[in-house]
């Protein structure tokens, strides 16, 4: 089975390497030549645990290839996946489909023999049909079907998520396309991963509805965290008690600084726009987005309060910049809202992150300083703000932290620590909803 993956980003590279692991012959194509050159040299352009080994193994096995050119690989392909970005469009909040449509148009003239063209990018309902129309317009004689195969992997655990998915969704219109996709995913039969076959529109909407639902769970518990602060309840215990109900489930009920990342923020906005286009409103998702924005603002107020009412001239050590641990992705990270607000009010912000600092430099105010080590960030700090729960921040040596700092303010925005432990070490502890 010959597979082409258009887009060698977080999704394209992981999916491509995993399909190669399944035994397919995969070529990842990207329009950034430097990205392809790096991959050919064996350098992985993103940080994703385990990806370097997976790529190296499949390159060595002759199953995984990289190319800047579409023509050759597309001509040989049985399946072509479009895994390019669909960022929020400036101005109206909708998903920007220009990269998807450009990929569809670019590949059309190189098709040979029957090919299945698969949207893996997260795309609004109707995109697969538009891809179909564009390919047909560019190449009237091509033999092809379009399918939708949304991706549910999470960054930081992407390979495990891809190789052991809760389900695979296949939106198809022909038995031939379905058979080819089922063949590609056949190794998952061994672990009895469910495959849900739907029409194109349902597959496209499943992805948005799933992401919006998960984002809603997070905003819900973040709203409850405020109620906990007002009433003296502990949000960790409330979430635990809620999650023990099988109908609710314990996952995605961790209160924190608000969700970020390359998916939830943009996909919730896009869902709202899809509803509007159909003359509907998506009030629950609108509230989810609003609560998320206010949660980030609430974190700034929380830090200010912990510092005694003003962050001016205070040195704040921020541990963690990426939107979640085990990734270098800074897209829509809560740090991008929280740090500028602190710096704006005159705080001296010194940040540390195991993987995200290079990316963060171009996105955060110039006044933010970056520390090579966690200890350096903590030196003479008035406050420590734990913003992303990287493992190395979970087991801090509190005595040493206290020695490095000049103040004793400990703001735990991920509820990683127990209050008693932190207070016993001489800190004033602030968390979220506890
Ligand atoms: P990304 O920005 O990391 O990667 C996209 C890649 O596509 C880039 O390297 C870009 O150069 C390349 N590209 C764009 N146009 C191209 C073209 N015409 N030809 C060849 N290459 C082209 O994006 P991502 O995070 O991998 O996301 C891709 C899609 O997958 C999005 O729709 C996203 O919503 C969805 N998704 C992402 C995740 C995630 O965790 N990142 C999870 C599930 C779904
Ligand atoms: C998400 C979806 O989970 C995944 O299925 C989809 O394919 C892409 O988008 P990702 O953005 O990589 O994955 O990470 P995820 O683990 O979902 O976290 C997203 C954000 O929500 C992070 O900022 C995280 O810190 C936050 N979050 C998550 C919480 O605040 N509380 C939780 O309980 C879970």
From TrEMBL:
Job of this protein: Catalyzes the conversion of UDP-glucose into UDP-glucuronate, one of the precursors of teichuronic acid.
Domain UDP-glucose/GDP-mannose dehydrogenase C-terminal: 317-419
Enzyme class: oxidoreductase
Binding of substrate, residues: 152-155, 207, 252-256, 260, 324
Enzyme Commission (EC) number: 1.1.1.22
GO function term, MF aspect, one: UDP-glucose 6-dehydrogenase activity
Assigned keywords, A-Z: NAD, Oxidoreductase
Active site (catalytic residues): 263
SUPFAM superfamilies, alphabetized: 6-phosphogluconate dehydrogenase C-terminal domain-like (SSF48179), NAD(P)-binding Rossmann-fold domains (SSF51735), UDP-glucose/GDP-mannose dehydrogenase C-terminal domain (SSF52413)
A Pfam family per the record: UDPG_MGDP_dh_N
Enzymatic reactions: UDP-alpha-D-glucose + 2 NAD(+) + H2O = UDP-alpha-D-glucuronate + 2 NADH + 3 H(+)
Record has NAD as a keyword: yes
Homology family: Belongs to the UDP-glucose/GDP-mannose dehydrogenase family.
Residues annotated for NAD(+) binding in this entry: 30, 35, 86, 122, 155, 266, 331
Name of the protein in question: UDP-glucose 6-dehydrogenase
Keyword NAD: yes
One GO term (biological process): polysaccharide biosynthetic process
Pathway assigned in UniProt: Nucleotide-sugar biosynthesis; UDP-alpha-D-glucuronate biosynthesis; UDP-alpha-D-glucuronate from UDP-alpha-D-glucose: step 1/1
């Amino acid at each position: 089975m010959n597979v082409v993956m258009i887009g060698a980003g977080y999704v394209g590279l992981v999916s491509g390497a995993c399909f190669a692991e399944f035994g397919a012959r995969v070529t990842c194509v990207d329009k950034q030549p430097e990205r392809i050159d790096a991959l050919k040299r064996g350098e992985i352009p993103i940080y994703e645990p385990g990806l370097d080994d997976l790529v190296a193994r499949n390159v060595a096995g002759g199953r995984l290839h990289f190319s800047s050119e579409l023509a050759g690989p597309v001509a040989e392909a049985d399946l072509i996946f479009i895994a390019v970005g669909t960022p929020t469009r400036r101005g109206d909040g909708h998903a920007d489909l220009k990269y998807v449509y450009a990929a569809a148009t670019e590949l059309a003239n190189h098709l040979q023999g029957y090919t299945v063209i698969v949207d893996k990018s997260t795309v609004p309902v109707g995109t697969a049909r538009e891809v179909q129309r564009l390919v047909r317009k560019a190449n009237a004689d091509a033999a092809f079907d379009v399918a939708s195969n949304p991706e549910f992997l999470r960054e930081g655990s992407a390979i495990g998520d891809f190789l052991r998915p809760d389900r695979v969704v296949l939106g198809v219109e022909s038995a031939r396309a379905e058979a080819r996709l089922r063949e590609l995913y056949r190794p998952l039969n061994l672990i009895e991963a469910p495959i849900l076959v739907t029409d194109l529109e349902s597959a496209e909407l499943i992805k948005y509805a799933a992401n919006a639902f998960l984002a809603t769970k997070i905003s819900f518990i973040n709203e409850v965290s405020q109620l906990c602060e007002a009433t003296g309840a502990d949000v960790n215990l409330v979430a635990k008690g809620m999650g023990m109900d099988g109908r609710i489930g314990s996952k995605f009920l961790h209160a924190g600084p608000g969700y970020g990342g390359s998916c939830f923020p943009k996909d919730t906005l896009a869902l709202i726009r899809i509803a509007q286009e159909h003359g509907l409103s998506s009030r629950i998702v609108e509230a989810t987005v609003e609560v998320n924005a206010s949660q980030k603002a609430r974190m700034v107020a929380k830090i200010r309060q912990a510092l005694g009412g003003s962050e001016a001239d205070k040195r704040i050590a921020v541990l963690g910049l990426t939107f979640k641990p085990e990734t270098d992705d800074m897209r829509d990270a809560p740090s991008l809202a929280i740090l500028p607000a602190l710096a704006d009010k005159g705080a001296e912000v010194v940040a540390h992150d195991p993987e995200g600092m290079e990316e963060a430099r171009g996105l955060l105010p110039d006044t933010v300083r970056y520390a090579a080590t966690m200890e350096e960030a903590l030196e003479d700090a008035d406050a420590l703000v734990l913003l992303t729960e990287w493992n190395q921040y979970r087991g801090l040596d509190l005595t040493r932290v206290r020695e490095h700092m000049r103040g004793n303010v400990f703001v735990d925005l991920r509820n990683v620590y127990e209050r008693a432990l932190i207070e016993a070490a001489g800190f004033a502890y602030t968390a979220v909803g506890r």
